[in-house]
Amino acid sequence: CILNNFPQVYDVTPFLEEHPGGDEVLLLAVEKDATDDFNDVGHSDSAKEQMEKFYVGKVDTSTIPEQPNYKLPAQTTPPSGQSSGFVVKLLQFLLPLLILGAAFALQYYGKKK
Ligand code: HEM
């Protein structure tokens, strides 16, 4: 089935083996709007007449959503990833300070003894 000359739909299944341009190009156009592909080749008037033999019907364009009704897949990082990432960053900043503080404290108490 081909969406050629959108919104007209043509079923070219019986034509696959007879198509002078080969079946491959037709199969590449399956289930998409092949209007540009068809026109770019510069098909003859006879080709356009033959096309009418495969006419199935029209797509009811009112059923096509204006916005695609799918959502992009969510980011791979889990939702908790953000907060744990923050904790890691905080620790990366605080840990060297803590070690430095511990080193100074040890030095101070070590001298006292
Ligand atoms: C119902 C749809 C189609 C019909 C009835 C059809 C019919 C034909 C016919 C009769 C020819 C011989 C040349 C001519 O008379 O113009 C032809 C050639 C060709 N068609 Fe189609 N065609 C269809 C769809 C497509 C689509 C979707 C493509 C996609 C690109 C395509 C690509 C070609 C190519 C590449 C040639 C060869 C042109 C050449 O060698 O000069 N056709 N087609």
Automatic annotation (TrEMBL):
Iron in keyword set: yes
Cellular component GO terms, alphabetical: membrane
Keywords associated with the record: Heme, Iron, Membrane, Metal-binding, Transmembrane, Transmembrane helix
An annotated Gene Ontology molecular function: metal ion binding
Annotated ranges, domain Cytochrome b5 heme-binding: 1-60
Recorded superkingdom: Eukaryota
KW Transmembrane (keyword) present: yes
TM region positions: 90-109
Family label: Belongs to the cytochrome b5 family.
Protein name from the UniProt record: Cytochrome b5-like
Classification lineage: Eukaryota, Viridiplantae, Streptophyta, Embryophyta, Tracheophyta
Name of the gene: LOC110747740
